[in-house]
## 1
Amino acid sequence: MEIAFPPTFLWAAATAAHQVEGGNVYNDNWVLEHAPGGPYAEPSGDACDQYHRYRDDIALLADLGFTMYRFSLEWSRIEPEEGAFSLAALDHYRRVLAACHEHGITPMVTFHHFTSPRWLAAAGGWEDAATPEKFARFCERAAAHLGDLIPLACTLNEVNLGPLLTAIGVEELRAFRTAPWYAAAARAVESSPARFTPFLYADAARGRATILAAHRRAVDAIKSGPGDCAVGLTLAMQDIQAGPGGEETAVRMRRDLQDVYLEATRGDDFIGVQTYSRERFGPDGPLGPAEGVERTQMHYEFWPEALEATIRYASAATSLPVIVTENGVATDDDTRRGAYVERALRGVAACLRDGVDVRGYTYWSALDNFEWALGYRPTFGLIAVDRRTQRRTVKPSARWLGRVARANGF
Ligand code: BGC
């Protein structure tokens, strides 16, 4: 074997509740997806129906060789109206956790992966000073019910994604807030465009304050439950590079998009690194993909080397153990997925050789699923899903990564 990983290294695949469970009228994304004239390519519909098929999906991941499954709780199912908690929904996630343990899979639970209850977003959401307390109350309830089965938890997914998307000009999310479709979505939840604030639509400064306060409170809330749970947050990290004349901009971008969030992990048990590509900055902003570099279905560069750079960056900034909580590629050519993962893993191995404390690697995503505004077109999955029959088909890259997991190297 050319590359061997530490004996306790975790090999995972990830999903997020809304992306695989599909819509439910209680969450804010459902409202956005259905606003007339909005930017969503299609609504989530039944997604992969994982709400009912979780047992088979978990068994399949275990059979393939994976040792960890990262998934998220859907807050809006657990607390569909403010203060009204559903024991049935909590029991559902207890069964999901039990299925992981039965199959020898370590569950990693994300308590918030972009979607929120519509009542929360309607009341000011991720710009509102009362939100951290509401999130902590949810985390406390969920941890009290589920904590004994949760060894690893992420409070919030990609706490910096809103500002990152704006900085790289992928989507002017803030500009959406003045669009007629956004006003229609706000009206649908009896709110106003100024007040209705889903996670990714928050103003950078107000959003950051709310989100980081929510994280801090959530760490304590989750730890108050039974069990002994390691808790952290996850960051959307790109390898931020300077193009010609872009050194100062790159430093500023690293500071605003990464450093301030990395500093906020003090007291956490790990840092979750999520990396897909690099971003180069010139003096006036993002330079976009370089000429001649392969692109993914997401239009950004196929750049697996970004993972090594961001692991090193996060580790140096925090001195915390690193868990790669997402890394992957959207492609319809599965051989390119295999090539991407192999190159990314070589980077992880190089970090480990240099003594960087990396505890696990998570591929995004276990299944082809609902890629937010882009709908079902980008295919990140290790496992394909026929959404008419819900039949799962394992791709060769999944078998390869599963073999790597079993051998703990390649
Ligand atoms: C998110 C996922 C998303 C993935 C691929 C990450 O930003 O956590 O929800 O599907 O990237 O774009």
Note: The mean pLDDT is 97.
## 2
Amino acid sequence: MLLKPAHSLKGEIHIPGDKSISHRSVMFGALAEGLTEVTHFLQGADCLSTISCFQKLGIEIENTPERILVHGKGLHGLRKPDCVLDAGNSGTTVRLLSGILAAQPFSCTLTGDASIQKRPMKRIMTPLRQMGADISGLNENDCAPLAVQGASLKGIHYQSPVASAQVKSCVLLAGLYAEGPTCVTEPSLSRNHTELMLASFGADINCQNTSAVIQPEPKLTGQKIEVPGDISSAAYFIAAALLVPNSEVLIRNCGINPTRDGILRAAKAMHADIEMLNRHTISGEPVCDLLVRSGNLTGTVIEGDLIPALIDEIPVIAVMAACAEGTTVIRDAAELKVKESDRIETIVTNLKAMGADISATDDGMIIHGGKPLHYAVTDTHHDHRIAMAFSVAGLVADGGIEIADDACVRISYPEFYHDLNSLRV
Ligand code: S3P
């Protein structure tokens, strides 16, 4: 895909459904009794992988353009699949599903694509084993395919070494089936959709600071869920509207959960012009419309507790930083190395190829902004967020940009190029 530079972006974008919430709506709906009806579900490849895994576990799921209907069978209604469960590219599917499978009265195998088979799984296997799970993997037990033999579990208090919603959610889901309460404490608060949504399905879950405690064997009841727009998808339009001169874009229906709104906080520190309009709540999640106008950005420091609230947005924030005046330092973000690609490496290599002054550090990067960007071919490493972040960079690069494997945007935002091009004037 060759993208030409843009002179100005104007108009309105309706952001597709949140990926994390879409996954969870299917998973929790499957474990609830009765019907769960989901509107504005994200039809991205990752969420379709979750649907397909639960169908193989015996759950009837109707997927129509208007809504998803999940015919839940209760906590003990899953059945042994007659084939390997394939999570595709989706870390959320593998890690959350492992917590559920660890407690089922059957065995099964869970795998995914080449990227998934390289991603670390010890982070979930360690706590699950402490709970009594029988789970093993390849590569010294760190990688999928994972073999899970259901077992009886006991509640634990797990101090997670990483701020990861996937680890936290995996342990809490296993805790639904454990003997006694299960507690997870993390070093900084990661996204809290599991806690909010499980509570709305009827789970007994208590959250304080960076800890969550869940009681076992609740009766979960099917819900009606409207999925808010995904701030991680909105991020590309926020950045594009800030960077392309003479732009004004209204981004409708953007989720602004405080555990996810780090990009707004970082953009504010960079002196971005973003207005939050029409604040309201849908399905227990805060949302608003964002009115974004172009302007000059300045460098900033992004670190500490802010990192989990913008971890998936760092590729596009790095692009913003490359176009800002002054230096941006991103630290405490070693988690970037174990995402769909090693994002420290993919961001730094691809921005350097465009002429940016950027260097990698052990846990982030340092960007001296303001050098003009020019044409390059982006090697996405099949990473959807790298493809979209560099498409934004192409809008302000001399000669535009070429994205190798642009099709990977289907993972989280199938209509991305259509929506982006609709704003050009
Ligand atoms: C997700 C959690 C995050 C995030 C991923 C989605 C989730 O991963 O990067 O895209 O839905 O729980 P980690 O838990 O590994 O930080």
Note: The radius of gyration is 21 Å.
